[in-house]
């Protein structure tokens, strides 16, 4: 797949494909060109390690470090701490997540008011989910309302969250999706990204970005040529061009 991706980029850079008519590139020619693309194994290993570290697969990262000799750019011990924060939030234990992230680095929340608001918003959502209506109202008034007065976008998000209290069945509320597990995951991802940034590490793994670029490159090339392409990213198998 990597050879396929870099060869696509090479086609654009070299302007090999005419704009007025589609060029037909046979499988034999395509595979021959792919073999000419040289990619260092060290670069591929770094790409894999970047994905494992960013996504928090600490055991896999340690095994890959030993097997490939690729050193991660951060202490693998910090991954365990970061995943503990993420797991607490995904379990709905927001207070524990806040405590853990402050133990990890207290400046993260101090310097990111939007993230802190979203964590407090998630606390409110968990109170509503548990049916603690009076406690939820008190928390919204004391902790979130003052922040909403200072920021219009915060106020709008607070209003959507509080509207869950108006409906007897909150899940049927227009904003009932706030109670979905996906909302926890969204907040956890935002917190995870902030922790990575504080550690001077990319907040997103490079591999998914490369796959998006591969899809984009193929879509662009479709307008200029007929060629073997990858349609199934999981299998990463070339499919013969339709002539």
UniProtKB/TrEMBL annotation:
Residues 78-135 form the CTLH domain. InterPro entries: CRA_dom, CTLH/CRA, CTLH_C, LisH, Ubq-SigPath_Reg. It comes from the Eukaryota. This is CTLH domain-containing protein. The lineage of its organism: Eukaryota, Viridiplantae, Streptophyta, Embryophyta, Tracheophyta.
């Amino acid at each position: 797949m990597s050879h396929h991706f870099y060869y696509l980029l090479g086609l654009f850079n070299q302007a090999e494909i005419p704009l007025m008519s589609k060029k037909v590139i046979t499988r034999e020619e395509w595979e021959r060109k792919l073999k000419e693309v040289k990619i260092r194994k060290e670069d591929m290993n770094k790409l894999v390690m970047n994905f494992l570290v960013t996504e928090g697969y600490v055991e896999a990262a340690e095994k890959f470090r030993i097997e490939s000799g690729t050193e991660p750019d951060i202490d693998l011990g910090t991954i365990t701490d970061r995943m503990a924060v993420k797991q607490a939030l995904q379990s709905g234990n927001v207070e524990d997540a806040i405590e853990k992230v402050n133990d990890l680095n207290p400046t993260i929340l101090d310097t990111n008011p939007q993230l802190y608001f979203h964590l407090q918003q998630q606390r409110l959502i968990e109170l509503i989910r548990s049916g603690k209506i009076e406690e939820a109202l008190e928390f919204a008034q004391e902790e979130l309302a003052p922040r909403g007065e200072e920021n219009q976008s915060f106020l709008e998000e607070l209003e959507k969250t509080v509207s869950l209290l108006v409906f007897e069945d909150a899940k049927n509320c227009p904003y009932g999706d706030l109670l979905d597990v996906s909302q926890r995951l969204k907040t956890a991802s935002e917190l995870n990204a902030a922790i990575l940034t504080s550690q001077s590490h990319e907040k997103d793994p490079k591999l998914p970005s490369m796959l998006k670029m591969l899809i984009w490159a193929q879509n662009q090339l479709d307008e200029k040529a007929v060629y073997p392409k990858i349609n199934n990213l999981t299998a990463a198998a070339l499919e013969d061009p339709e002539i």
